[in-house]
UniProtKB/TrEMBL annotation:
Similarity comment text for this entry: Belongs to the PEP-utilizing enzyme family.
InterPro entries in UniProt: ATP_grasp_subdomain_1 (IPR013815), PEP-util_enz_mobile_dom (IPR008279), PEP_util_AS (IPR018274), PEP_util_C (IPR000121), PEP_util_CS (IPR023151), Phosphohistidine_dom_sf (IPR036637), PPDK_AMP/ATP-bd (IPR002192), Pyruvate_phosphate_dikinase (IPR010121)
Bilayer-crossing regions: none
UniProt lineage: Bacteria, Pseudomonadati, Pseudomonadota, Alphaproteobacteria, Caulobacterales
Natural source organism: Phenylobacterium soli
UniProt name for this protein: Pyruvate, phosphate dikinase
Region forming the signal peptide: none
């Protein structure tokens, strides 16, 4: 087996496509060498060797020694130096390099091959004793720390003692003799610690370092990082051994890092830092302040120290052309490490640079405009979920944060406002134009209007799919949920957390992207929806097949949805329209009615309000499809629950308190989610659905009569499970629609369909399609009913399932493509068999989740529907799944 791949001298055994075998660093070093770029020669020991090492009780393959010797020989030939030879010593770096960049891995060892003799040789050869011993002391410290596992503080203390003795503060003030003395003390300290001298044999040093890289694959940091980023343990790491070049050989030597474009803004301008007379990690270590690469960057920063462009103009010009070449070659923004030795440039690493969402967008659009990539490739370059960062105001990363409490990042974005503890107060202050943050133990459907009026929401209890989290995401309100540290004391009008108290009316800021609650007002950055964002979204729209609609019931949501590019409403939940204080009285009256006549009388009061809701939605949606779901929750959700509330309601509405309480108790259900809800309301009390259908058709007639584009309402019946149920509902709908159109003398096109949210509905979809013209998969409930897991209670045990690897992801966040997915596949197939043009969509939380959207594309659904703020994410994810 071939374990060793060499690179250097204008050629290489490997190339960039061999990341799995050579690791990212090794593959790109090979690629750069073959491109003829100045790369110090070296060789890569493969990841397969690492796999062998772990499969064979941490031993090496028998032929590795020979292959390494061959590799080393090649490096010696190219450099004209020889490893361990005091007359002309070759020094190397030993660098780890997995397939994916892994900050948890071993640190690099530089200057390997130095010992007492080669250090003297290097001093003579370079004509620079100070440089030689500066390199030697660096090597002893790095090797001892990384390979021998000695604490680096020990070395720092020794160096500090010397500086104190010499009465200097900076490393650059130490002379050759000073470094020699430091080296002597370092060696003594190592021997005292280990009971044996610092290894002097360069080959022993090399194998020590190689072993340390392989061993580091299993250190705790690396394991933790792999777990966090889903990197399989089986991958292994490669080891790169590379001839040293020296950035610490005086004023014409330097080391630095660069991005070909700005990684936080995406601006097309070389960005980075360098240090004169320095090595390796000095740039990031913060010992000295690094200098800018370009003159313009230096001027912008108001820096005094010269930029690389000014200090080393010739090598800078060469560097600039090399990095331009690299970017063109890799067709992406590059993150680059380089060193200059006595005016000569060397490239030490390149990779596609990590970037913010904003930069990703700009770089993708720019690269496509520059003709380097296609528009489709540009669409693939942006992570859909990352758009979230761009759609909400966010906290200025430069501003200080004083954290009061921590919770879950339930809904992204940031908001500042006065603390309030009740939905009523939020509504009162909110409608007066005040910015408020609603802080609650947890929220319930009655709080909707208060949540809408608040700029942000904090709950002490509840998970990522709690009521507060789902509703807040839908409204685009930032939300921190499950902030268990917060204790609300309604009596004293304050909350306490971490020993501090925050009174009602005090200003706080919440960051729904991190889950933090912060003291005071913090500076924000507003979202930018034009420019690159609009351009990329336009490209995405050009390639996607799936339509994207929004879940929206208020005019505000509907407007936001259109602004974000929604092509209709996929779910309008009518019950949210009933919590309005003006309406809930009539709703309660309807619930309390003793007979059908009483219910009808109360419903007649609701009808005009309901009609007006639809008129507004239809107007905003201008002829786009609007799917309206008829009343879904159990009726008792509209009633007060305890005696105190009952008394208050009775007083406010004139309804009879005893009757209210009795009715609430009558309606109580043991398991309301599987109780008298959904179309079961429409079957038991047809007059409710009749009123709603009437409202919808009357509204459509009103729009048509005004000469505007008539909407195509899609009337959706929830929680259907049987063909006969659907037949009943279809007949009810058609009958009322016919009545209304006859009365108004107008023609309205409408569709009747159902939500598929029960396993039986999916399996018997053929029966339903006889009467239903469309299906919308209500995957929140479908997931709940398929697993038999209550969405509201899953937070208590789901984590244990995820930790134990039983669930890979929360099935309420990303669709279970196997179980729930099979039901959807079956329903689509059987539905289409019965009615070939049945329209299929999805309207659960999954409609905005990129992985779930890819699934929807696969199954061939017609559209996805998600909360307004996720519409752009869905558009991009739909495009990517179509490419
Ligand atoms: P990391 O993955 O942590 O960035 P690297 O292996 O890239 O580790 O090494 C870190 C730094 O060490 C490089 O950026 C470079 O400055 C320096 N370095 C590595 N190899 C060499 C070498 N052969 N010659 C000079 N400097 C080197
Ligand atoms: Mg590094
Ligand atoms: Mg590096």
């Amino acid at each position: 087996t071939r374990w060793v791949y060499t690179f250097g001298g204008g050629r290489a055994d490997g190339d960039a496509s061999m990341k799995n075998l050579l690791g990212g660093k090794g593959a790109n070093l090979a690629e750069m060498s073959a491109l003829g770029l100045p790369v110090p020669p070296g060789f890569t020991i493969t990841t397969e060797c690492c796999t062998y090492y772990y499969a064979n009780e941490r031993t090496y393959p028998a032929d590795l020694k020979d292959q390494v010797a061959q590799g080393l020989k090649k490096v010696e030939e190219i450099t004209g130096k020889s490893f361990g030879d005091p007359a002309n010593p070759l020094l190397v770096s030993v660098r780890s390099g997995a397939r994916a960049s892994m900050p948890g891995m071993m640190d690099t060892v530089l200057n390997l091959g130095l010992n007492d003799e080669t250090a003297e040789g290097l001093a003579k050869l370079a004509g620079d004793r100070r440089f030689a011993f500066d390199s030697y002391r660096r090597f002893i410290q790095m090797y001892s720390n990384v390979v021998l596992d000695l604490d680096h503080h020990m070395f720092e203390e020794i160096l500090d003692e010397h500086k104190e003795r010499l009465d200097v503060t900076v490393d650059t003030a130490l002379s050759a003799e000073d470094w020699e003395a430091v080296v002597a003390d370092y060696k003594k300290a190592v021997e005292a610690e280990l009971g044996e001298p610092f290894p002097q044999d360069p080959h022993a040093q090399l194998w020590g370092a190689v072993g340390a890289v392989f061993a580091s694959w299993m250190n705790d940091r690396a394991k933790f990082y792999r777990r966090m980023h889903d990197i399989p343990e089986s991958w292994g790491t490669a080891v790169n051994v590379q001839a040293m070049v020296f950035g610490n050989m005086g004023e014409t030597s330097a080391t630095g890092v660069a991005f070909t474009r700005n990684p936080s803004t995406g601006e097309n301008r070389l960005y980075g830092e360098f240090l004169i007379n320095a090595q390796g990690e000095d740039v990031v270590a913060g010992i000295r302040t690094p200098q800018a690469l370009t003159k313009i960057a230096r001027e912008e920063m108001g820096e005094k120290q010269p930029s690389m462009e000014e200090a080393l103009p010739e090598v800078f010009a060469q560097f600039k052309s090399v990095v331009e070449k690299l970017e063109k070659h890799y067709r992406d923004m590059q993150d680059i490490e380089f060193t200059v030795e006595k005016g000569r440039l060397y490239m030490l690493q390149t990779r596609n640079g990590k970037r913010t969402a904003k930069a990703a967008l700009k770089v993708a659009v720019d690269l496509a405009s520059e003709g380097l990539i296609t528009r489709e490739e540009a669409v693939m370059r942006v992570e859909p979920a990352s758009l979230d960062q761009l759609l909400h105001p966010t906290i200025d990363p430069g501003s200080p944060r004083e954290v009061i409490a921590n919770g879950l990042p339930a809904s992204p974005g940031a908001a500042t406002g006065k603390v309030v503890f009740t939905a009523e107060e939020a509504e009162r202050l909110g409608s007066a134009g005040e910015a408020v943050i609603l802080v609650r133990e947890e929220t319930s459907p009655e709080d909707i209007r208060g949540m809408d009026a608040a700029r942000g929401i904090v709950t002490a209890r509840g998970g990522m799919t709690s009521h507060a989290a789902v509703v807040a995401r839908g409204m685009g309100r930032p939300c921190v949920s499950g902030a268990g540290e917060i204790h609300i004391d309604m009596k004293s009008g304050e909350f306490r957390a971490r020993g501090r108290s925050v009174k009602e009316g005090e200003i706080v800021t919440i960051d729904g992207s991190t889950g933090e609650v912060l003291a005071g007002a913090v500076k924000m950055i507003e979202p930018e929806l034009s420019g690159d964002f609009a351009t990329l979204m336009g490209w995405a729209d050009g390639v996607r097949r799936l339509k994207v609609r929004a879940n929206a019931e208020t005019s505000l949501d509907a407007r936001t949805a259109r602004q974000f590019g929604a092509e209709g409403i996929g779910l309008c939940r009518t019950e949210h329209m009933f919590f309005d204080p003006d309406r809930i009285a009539a709703v309660r009256e309807m619930i309390l009615a003793d007979d059908t006549a009483g219910r009808k009388a109360a419903l007649a009061k609701i009808l005009p309000m309901q009609r007006q809701d639809f008129v507004e939605l239809f107007q905003i949606m201008e002829g786009l499809p609007v799917t309206i779901r008829l009343l879904d929750p159990p009726l008792h959700e509209f009633l007060p629950h305890n005696e105190e509330d009952v008394a208050a309601v009775a007083q406010a509405t004139g309804l009879d308190a005893a009757k209210l309480l009795r009715r609430a108790q009558e309606l109580h259900e043991v398991n309301p989610m599987l109780g008298h809800r959904g179309c079961r309301l429409g079957v038991a009390y047809p007059e409710i659905y009749e009123m709603q259908v009437r409202g919808i058709i009357e509204a459509a007639c009103e729009i048509a009569a005004s000469g505007k584009a008539a909407p195509i309402p899609e009337i959706m019946h929830p929680l259907v499970s049987k063909g006969e149920e659907m037949k009943f509902l279809r007949e009810l709908t058609d009958r009322v629609a016919k009545e209304v159109t006859a009365e108004k003398g107008c023609q309205i096109e409408y569709k009747v369909g159902t939500m598929i949210e029960l396993p039986r509905a999916a399996i018997r979809a053929g029966d339903l399609a006889e009467y239903a013209e469309f299906f919308s998969f209500g995957t929140n409930d479908l997931t709940q009913t398929t697993f038999g897991i209550s969405r509201d209670d899953s937070g208590r045990f789901l984590n244990a399932y995820i930790e134990k690897g039983i669930f890979e992801k929360d099935p309420f966040v990303s669709i279970d493509t196997e179980g729930v997915g099979d039901l959807i596949r079956i329903a689509a197939e059987r539905g289409r068999a019965a009615r070939p043009d049945v329209k299929l969509g999805i309207c659960g939380e999954h409609g905005g989740d990129p992985a779930s959207i890819a699934f929807c594309e696969q199954v061939g659904l017609d559209y996805v529907s998600c909360s307004a703020y996720r519409v752009p994410i869905a558009r991009l994810a739909a495009a990517q799944s179509a490419i």
